[in-house]
Write a structure and sequence with these properties.
alpha/beta, Dimethylsulfoxide Reductase, domain 2, Rossmann fold, 6-stranded mixed beta barrel, 5-stranded parallel β-sheet, 21 strands, about 30% helix
Length: about 525
Amino acid sequence: MTNSIEEIENARALFVIGSNTTETHPVIGYRVKMAKKKGALLIVADPRKIDLAEHADVFLQLRPGTNEALLNGMINVIIQEGLVDEEFIRKRTEGYAEMAAAVQKYTPEYVETITGVAADDLRRAARLYAGAESAAILYTMGITQHTKGTDSVLAVANLAMVTGNVGKPGSGVNPLRGQNNVQGACDMGALPNVFTGYQRVDSSEALAKFRKAWGVKLNPKPGLTVTEIIDAILQDKIKALYVMGENPALSDADLHHVIKALEKVEFLVVQDIFLTETAALADVVLPAAAFAEKRGTFTNTERRVQMVRPAVKPPGEAKADWLILTELASRLGMKWRYETPEDIFKEIAALTPSYAGIGYRRLEEEGGLQWPCPDSGHPGTLFLHQDKFSRGKGLFTPVEYRPSAEEPDEQYPLLLTTGRNLFHYHTGTMTRRSDGINAFKPEETVQMNPDDAARLAIGEGDMVKITSRRGDLKARATVTDRVPPGVIFMTFHFHEAAANLLTNSAVDPVAKIPEFKVCAVKVEKEQ
């Protein structure tokens, strides 16, 4: 997030796109509703009538997979009607002319043919966003989990910059991270191309610094992403796999493809708090401590580093992740000298400029700090890019709409899009072991529009079979106008009806993220 959670409540306009915020990020969803009560304008773009659509000044119900066309259309209106922030563009950005030329053809009428969003609604949304004193964009995986997800994120940045909504309170580009420490994991280099703090592994300066600190040779070649790892196993390029706190046997696209790889790999180690579907396939399972059983830090979606403290002891042989890794390193002959999590954090601060001013004592006393925090006297950073962008000037990037990798056809006439619900999280590793939570949502249901249900003679509660080019599953139907005709919706929380048996493993060429949000399916009533 360029900005902070607390700023949401005081924004004058909010544009929520590809995010079912009240269910997937309920605390932030509450902030959005509070902003609305304070008079903020709310624009919501989503294929489904999510809860926030009921509160929106403008609801843009777009076809799944058409985000970049919608965003280009809004920018087109803003430029054509003279609503751009000319001073911001002139002083703080580059590449504007090329971007403006690219969006010229995305008139509201043309965008309507792609997205299904009425031209007048698009115009109104653009005017509300551009006319606000401060406007924030919130998005999640409804934007990114596409074969053109990177383009959609770039289009979001274009929209924010063209209106000057970056580098000031209540504005910005704000991806909401999916789990409590996803941001922290990325900050710590849990990406294939960077060390901590996004220092590139192919940077000679970064390589020299980390080589000196660690006393080992380091490979300057970026590693593989999750999807590339799975493919590499099937190509006999990877012989062993170590999985920590992840359940790809249920969470990754095209599960038959994934499970084939997990069964093929010669040596599979899984480190987790429960015996997940992935752990059940492992050669070795290392029991890890859960969040309330260990000490350390989490970095949340707004870049805030916070302490986590043990409330109870780990059960049985379970240990904190850092301790498992340290003991493993010792047995492999590495002389790691970490006695406590704080020892590790001191090394993080020493090697990571954005964390340099953060330490356990400050976190205990101040309750949390937002990076960048370059020195011990720095208060942390509420919002980014106040005076300049990290690259100097903000770069506009021309973006073109292109169809999803798989569109509906005669054989598979419906479009499946996936997501989450309020009561369960991810693959249900924790939430589905809670009787109280299961009472609210005990099984998966597939949402269908009444028109599609009537055409297929499917009623509320009927069991249906859903088939894609990759697999099939059975689930109970729920008939609702929350989804438009031609679209069905499922979550991926339930192994009994695993939506990712159906989803497409085609990936974004840059981010390598699969197209979870769009795949062609057919639905049949179970006899």
